[in-house]
């Protein structure tokens, strides 16, 4: 039976999440560092090199590097296809219109994914981009891709 003379410490229901308070190698809160690491390619490279301890930040940095690389590959593919379609005399305008519409959809998709990963990282939640997330997890943790 507990001793009634010893008061129990009050429970603080507003305790911050561990990811939000944990300090990283960069002396930033973990969630802020992860959100900054989400800047495609550049932010990912900077935080992957600087961060040595926090797996949360390193995951988002690696995911950002892969995501930025995919964005660059799609940009190069668009430029190549634009050049090829521009040289076809009869169907040039139709093909360029279709290519432009596809590029607009892909760009909006990349932008939406970027916004989602920044919000999730800042919230302290791990969210894997489909196809990219498992590869980033494997690179950071060394675990096999499921």
Structural description of this entry:
The protein is an all-alpha fold and 146 residues long. It is 65% helix and 0% strand. Helix 3 (42-50) runs antiparallel to helix 4 (55-86) and helix 4 crosses helix 6 (132-141). The longest helix has 32 residues, at 55-86. It is elongated, with a radius of gyration of 22 Å. Mean pLDDT is 85; it is low at 9-20.
Topology (SSEs and partners):
Layout: H1 18-21, H2 30-37, H3 42-50, H4 55-86, H5 92-123, H6 132-141
SSE succession: HHHHHH
> Can you tell me the overall shape?
elongated
DSSP, total strands: 0
| Beta-strand content | under 5%
Overall pLDDT confidence: 85
Biggest β-sheet strands, sense, barrel: none
* SS-derived structural category: mainly alpha
Radius of gyration: 22 Å
Can I get a quick summary?
By secondary structure, the protein is mostly helical. It contains six helices and no strands.
Features:
146 residues, mainly alpha, 6 helices, 65% helix
